[in-house]
Design a protein that fits this description.
Layout lengths: L7 E5 L5 E5 H8 L8 H4 L6 E3 L4 H11 L3 E5 L5 E6 H43 L5 E3 L5 E4 L1 H7 L3 H4 L14 H14 L1 E9 L5 E9 L8
Length: about 220
């Protein structure tokens, strides 16, 4: 049984009969009964009961059917061990809801922490990679380059962010070459091949390039 504030008491009216006296009963009877009236005369009878092992839905249905606010809860020996009413049910439901909400928020926080850790790991891998890496937006404008890119091309990150990879174009490949590259990227999601590029110094260099299309939730 869950402990809670008391708004009703079980009254032993006789050796064989129990009743119940609620706060509402007290307020209603105070004005109409003398102060020496026995409590047993004020208690509502008979005391309706439900066994502690019965499902909560049974208690709810009994409260509705009998149009009462409380039921006595009986143990295996038919001894009264507590009272239950709609307020208790609502409080219990609220308690379960709040616990479920806390569990969901804690799981969200754990998932965010794992995601953050994975993101940090991915960033460290990219930063420490010996291969030059470029990340572009859907408009093919550079958003990120790693240190290996700077070492390879001579361009610092701030010099290329916001621009397109055409800044590296060597001029040695025709339009057909690039069209085939983008068609492969569109149809297969990646392209891999050798390409001539130009460093910031103007020096041409041949590299093995891999381009991979990564789409987000909006398929961009």
């Amino acid at each position: 049984m869950r402990l809670s504030s008391c708004d009703a008491v079980v009254v032993k009216c006789s050796e064989q009969e129990l009743g119940i006296l609620t706060e509402r009963d007290m307020v209603r009877f105070v004005a109409h009964h003398p102060g020496n009236t026995p409590i047993s005369e004020l208690a509502s009878r008979p005391l309706l009961t439900v066994h502690q092992n019965e499902p909560l839905i049974t208690a709810r249905d009994r409260l509705l059917e009998q149009r009462v606010r409380h039921l006595a809860v009986l143990d295996e020996g038919n001894n009264v061990v507590g009272l239950i009413g709609f307020r208790d049910m609502l409080a219990g439901a609220e308690q379960h809801y709040m616990q479920d909400l806390r569990d969901a928020l804690e799981e969200r926080d754990r998932a965010l922490a794992r995601s953050h850790e994975n993101l940090q790991l991915a960033e460290r891998v990219i930063e420490s990679s010996l291969e030059g890496i470029i990340v572009t937006d859907p408009s093919n404008r550079i958003e990120f380059v790693n240190p290996a890119f700077t070492h390879m091309t001579g361009y610092a990150a701030e010099e290329v962010i916001g621009k397109t990879p055409e800044i590296l174009s060597s001029g040695r490949h025709d339009a057909t070459y690039y069209r085939q590259m983008w068609e492969a990227l569109k149809n297969h999601g990646y392209w891999r091949g050798e390409i001539w590029n130009r460093r910031k110094s103007g020096e041409l260099y041949l590299e093995l390039l891999t381009i991979t299309a990564i789409t987000g939730e909006k398929a961009r």
